[in-house]
Design a protein that fits this description.
The protein is mainly alpha-helical and 115 residues long. It contains five helices and no strands. The chain has one domain.
Length: 115
């Protein structure tokens, strides 16, 4: 078994030990890492990072709008509003990467918060 396969297996095994919220927060942190790296990497990595961020927020909006979602209505409305703002930003000709990073970081922090 290669090192990569061993590392992948070990990572997979530890995912069960982490909460769903922590794993969800990681998605936003990974999106931020891609956005940060894309700043100086050229147009293709930037387009990919923006597209991934847009798809992530599309999924969030869809999940929040699901009638089975038990979140309080005001919180769902706020999340959808933020998600729509993110989607508008990623579609701009010159998106504000700092804004996107801040929004993703704030959501990741909220997901990781204990209490």
């Amino acid at each position: 078994m290669s090192f990569h396969q061993q590392a992948s297996r070990a990572y997979s095994a530890t995912q069960g030990l982490r909460s769903n919220r922590d794993q969800e927060a990681d998605l936003f942190l990974r999106a931020n890492a891609a956005l940060r790296q894309s700043r100086d990497a050229g147009p293709i990595p930037l387009v990919r990072a923006l597209s991934d961020t847009g798809r992530l927020w599309s999924a969030v909006i869809d999940l929040v709008r699901d009638p089975e979602n038990a979140l309080p209505a005001p919180l769902k409305a706020s999340i959808v509003s933020v998600g729509l703002a993110v989607q508008r930003e990623v579609e701009r000709a010159a998106p504000d990467i700092d804004f996107l990073i801040t929004v993703n970081a704030d959501l990741a922090a909220g997901l990781s918060a204990r209490g």
